[in-house]
Structures are given as C-alpha cells and as structure tokens.
Amino acid sequence: MLLQTSSLSFSHPGQSPIQFPDIHLNSGDSLLILGKSGSGKTTLLNLLSGLLRPLTGEVILDGKSLSKLSSHELDEFRGKKIGIVFQKPHLISALNVKENLQLVPYFSKEKAQNLDQLLIDLGIGGKAKSSVLTLSEGEAQRVSIARALAVSPKLILADEPTSSLDDEHAEKVIQLLKSQSEKIGAALVIVTHDQRVKNHISNFIEVKA
Amino acid sequence: MNLFKISWKYLTFRPLSTGLNVFLLALGLAIITVLLLIQDQLEKKMNQDAAGIDMVVGAKGSPLQLILSSVYHVDFPTGNIPIDEAKKLSRNRLVKNVIPLALGDNYQGFRIVGTNHDYLELYQVDFSSGKAWELPFEVVVGAEVAKKLQLKVGDEFLGSHGISMGSHDHDQHNFVVSGVLAPKGNVVDRLVLTSFESVWYTHDEGEEIATEDESSPDSLTVLRSDLASEPSEGHDQFHQKVKTKGFPESDQPREVTTLLLQFRNPMAAVQLPRMINSGTSMQAASPSFEISRLFELLGVGVSLLQGIAVILIVVAGLGIFIALFNSLKERKYDLAILRALGASRMQLLILVFLEGILLTSFGAILGMGLGHGFLALLVSQSDQMMVSSIQPWIFLNQELWILVYALVVGVLASVIPAWSAYQTSIARQLTKA
Q1: Which residues of chain A have a CB within 8 Å of the CB of B427?
Q2: B293 to chain A, minimum CA–CA distance in Å?
Q3: What is the ipTM of this complex?
Q4: Considering only CA atoms, which of A99, A83, A100, A82 is closest in space to residue A91?
Q5: Domain count, chain A
Q6: CA–CA distance, B240 with B238 (Å, rounded to integer)
Q7: Cα B413 off chain centre by
C-alpha cells in the first residue's frame, strides 16, 4: 500500500470541520477526487501533500506517517516523494523552462530523470531554453507536469489540471499525466469536477462538505 | 541550480529596478570612497611635505597663506623680507638651520623656487639624471615637471614672472636644466629648483633692460650669456659658482621671500614666534598648526559631503527594501512553489537575504570603481598642483569598510522581506488563486 489515509478531518478557521473519506492507493493506481466547488477537494489534496496538517486522522505515504515528520523533514519528504500539478502552472518566471525543472532535484536533493527527454515526451522539447513568459497556457501546464515528474516521485497530485484548458489540450494533459505516472510507477490523484477527466479514470471518491 | 543562481536570476529578471538601486547605492559609496582617498592622501601628503620644517618665516600677512605658499607652493606668497633681517634671525641660538626661498616666478605654471642645496637635502631628493645646480641659471626640475614638459638635462627655457601661467616672460636669460629629480610623490615633484642667484639675476636684468630701453622681443637670443652686448655689470657673476649653503652673497640690498626654519630645541617653539611676530617686520607660522586649522575649515565641507553620502546610502537601502518587499507579493507564490518542491523555510530565508546582499555587493564594487574613476577624472582635469598629485588608483584598507557598510545595508533591507518569506504559508498561497 503506497498511500493510506484514515479518518482525516480538517477545520478552516471559523468553519465546521470537514470529514474526508479514507483513501487506499497502490503504486500505479489512479484516483479522482470529485466534489462541488468549496467542498474541500483542494484541502484534501493539501492534506495528502502535507502542506496542511489535519485536525484528526493521519496520512501514511510509502510507510511514513506525515504527521510524525518535523516541518523541515516534511519539506524534504514532499520534495522527494510527491509531485504536485497545481490548478495554474505557477512557473518561476525569472527562470527558463529547463531551469524551472532543475529546481526540483536541487530542492528535493533527489536525482532527476532525463529532463530533456521528459520535455520531449511532453511535446515541448524545443522550449527548454525559452522564457516561461513566452509559453502558451497549454505549454505552461505541460511544463508544470514535467516539473511534478522531474524526480520520479511516488505520488502525483493534480489540482484541477484541466480547468483552464480547451478540450484538445485537456485531453492531452490527462493522457500525459496517466501515461507518465504509469511509466514511473507512481500513484496519481486528480482533484477535478471536469467531465473530460472522468471519462479517463473511473476510480473516484467524493468529498462532501 | 543553487540558491545563488536563483537569486541572481531574480535580480537580472528586473534589470531596471535592480540597476537603479545598485546605482543609488554606488553613488553614495563613491562619495565616501572619494572622501576617504582625498582625506587620506591629502593629509599624508601635507604632513610629508611639511616634515622637517618647524616654522616658516615670511612677510606679514595671513599665516595660512604663508604656509600654503612656501611649504606647499599653492597660494600666493605674502611678500618679501629683507635679507639682513633674515640673516639676523638665522644667527639666533635657537635656530638650528634656515633654508631661504625666493619665490614668484614660474615656468609653464610650475613654480620656480630659488634656494640652496639644503632644500634638496630637506626632501632627500634623488636625481634620475644630472646633478644639482652650481652656476646661476642652472635648474633642477622635479619629476612631474620633467614628464609634463618633456625636459631633460641640457634643455633650456625661459621663466615667467608670477606664479601662474600667462604672465610676461623673463626673456633675458635662459634657464638650463642641470638635473632631473626622481619621483618622490611630494611637493618637489612639481617644482623647478634653482639657486637664489638665478632668481635675483633674472629680475635684475629685467629692470636693467627696461631702463636701457633696448628690450625688443627679438633681443632674447642675443642675450645668451657669452655675447658681447651684455650690460656691463655683473656678467662675470653668471659664471661664478653659487652658494650652496646658507645665504647667498650680494653687494646689493637683496630680499628673500620666506625662510624655512628648523629649531634647535623645543624652547624655540615658544620663544621664536613671539620674538619674530612682535620684534620684527616678519611673521612666523607653524605648518602643523596651520594645517590643522585648514582641515578644520575643510571639515565643514567634508561633513556635508559625508551627510549626502549617508543620505544616498539610506535611500538606496530603502529602495532595495521596497523593491524586495514589492516583488514579494508576486514572489510569495514563487516561494510557496519552491516550498512545495521541497525547499525548506531556511533556504527561502537565505534566498531573500542573498538577493539583498548580492545587490549591495554590486553597489559596493561599482561604488568603489566610480569613486576611483571619478577621482582619476578629477585629477586628470585639474591644474591645481595639490589635487593633481593625488593617486586615484591606490586602495585603502578603509575601503573594506565600504563593503561592510554595503553588506549591512543589504542585510537590513532584506530582514523584513526575508522574514515574511520565512513565514509564508504554502497552502494558503497556492490555493488563494
């Protein structure tokens, strides 16, 4: 078992606590987290990545309980084990495409996979030296996927990766996420309310506020 | 990829704001550099030039002017004193040695100083070629004079009356260069030294020719000393050796401009000035006292400049702070991403500090460069002897303090932005969008 959560709950300040369904995932599995806007999908993702600490319950990833790690250990653990694709690409605009990817091995102290090959696989091999400001939205999202995959993490978390993309690009992005995570044997968790994603991944849980 | 490279990329990502801040800081530090260099060298130079001179005696007037004109050769002389009074003073038991000077002429702006060989000894000169003067009209030129005017042993030139360029030439007799001095970095570098007699004879001739009214401008070639048309009196004296010690001999009532005195004992410092100032038509001035008075006067200007420099540095610090702080809003996102990628809080803290420090280090280096460059420009453009002798490309230990100031500014400006970077909550940042 790669990822396991038990009786997770979280409370935003001034709001009633949210209870989350338990998750059990093996390497190579895919899972959708569905739910209405504001239901706490992203909060669950943040709990899974250790960016937020739960009110109750625990997250066990690759045999380690996230709540038992110090904040510094957690930062490093996250860098090594988890790749995150955010809703928006959030690339560092002062750096070019390749440099954005090189950040990952530097901060996670983990060996990177072949970054040039990764960019080629994602269809943006020619953009390695480009400024991220010159990328189209679809290209930028693909760079952010490449960044999530850079050190071959065990778990890939994607937060509405397709919400701002047209059909064609959304299709491509989902395909890439699936194929690439299978290639490196990582579990894939996608938060979405996008019908286009549901067509590709059948395994899902629903979050209700 | 490392933190250094990342902060470098951030800096070069907004070149205008970075450049402006670096430049502001550099200006402030440049002023400090210039002040440091000038103060250090001027003080050193002035003390060096006045070394061995306990007191200066000259005609009554401003004591500061007397010192400036006869020790540093920058201001106008106060006037002349009768040689008899000077001789009387030199026989005083409190006086160890007297070096008389005759000032008032120049060649191409370089002052001609009539004196004896004691003056050469006072500054412990070395000759790069030739030797000291022995006959009237033989001169020894300082290193800088020789370099600027391309003079070498055997060259001849005419002196002009007055201490600045453009006054009328003494066109009766050529000076002949008998020696060129090695550069010493002191006032002698910029002087034309000759015997007392040379200065006297130059002026004598001028008067004689004028009265005899045969001073057509072309007559100067005729007046080479060995030609027959010389005025009768005193031609022989041109070939007699000049006095190399003490006062020159003369059958006429002569004058000298100033006397440089060395005391025999400390008592002289108390007694001699009072005696001279009240008992004679001359005045006595102490170089060290007048210099410290001068620096006191200059101090106001120096403090003003220092104030401006400090203000510039503070403004630059604020500029860097504001730039870092402003960019932090967009940057908080970046920082959150970096955290999500595995960066620790400490690394982000270092990242922001590094940026501030990099910025100010560049400012410091540019500032020192600007300071030295500006001084070099100032020196190369200046005819003022005092300024033109400053070396713009020597580096002082105090300049390391400029680096320290700059780093302190960098750290101070980064403290708040860095702390707020440290505090960034990743989840809140990333989900805010």
Answers
A1: 46, 51-52
A2: 56
A3: 0.86
A4: A100
A5: 1
A6: 6
A7: 37
Residues on chain A touching B9 (C-beta within 8 angstroms): 94-95, 99
Residue by residue, pLDDT tens for chain A (209 residues) are 889 888 889 888 888 888 889 999 998 889 999 888 778 888 888 889 888 888 899 899 988 898 888 888 888 888 889 999 888 888 988 899 999 999 989 988 888 888 898 888 888 888 889 998 999 888 888 899 899 988 889 999 998 888 877 888 888 888 888 888 888 889 999 998 888 888 888 888 888 76
Q: Exposed (0-12), middle (13-18) or buried (19+): which is B76, by Cβ within 10 Å?
A: middle
3-state helix, strand, coil in chain A (%, to 5): 40, 20, 40
Query: Does the pLDDT of residue B220 top 60, yes or no?
Result: no
CATH number, residue A148: 3.40.50.300
The rounded distance, in Å, linking the Cα atoms of B63 and B51 is 18
User: Helix A97-108 and helix A71-81: axis angle, to 10°?
Assistant: 130
Domain ranges in chain B are: 3-45+299-432, 55-285
B358 inside 8 A of chain A by CB: no
Distance, in Å, from the CA atom of B190 to the CA atom of B146, rounded to the nearest integer, reads 9
Q: How confident is the model over A185-197, as pLDDT tens digits? A: 899 999 988 888 8
Domain containing residue A196:
27-38+71-201
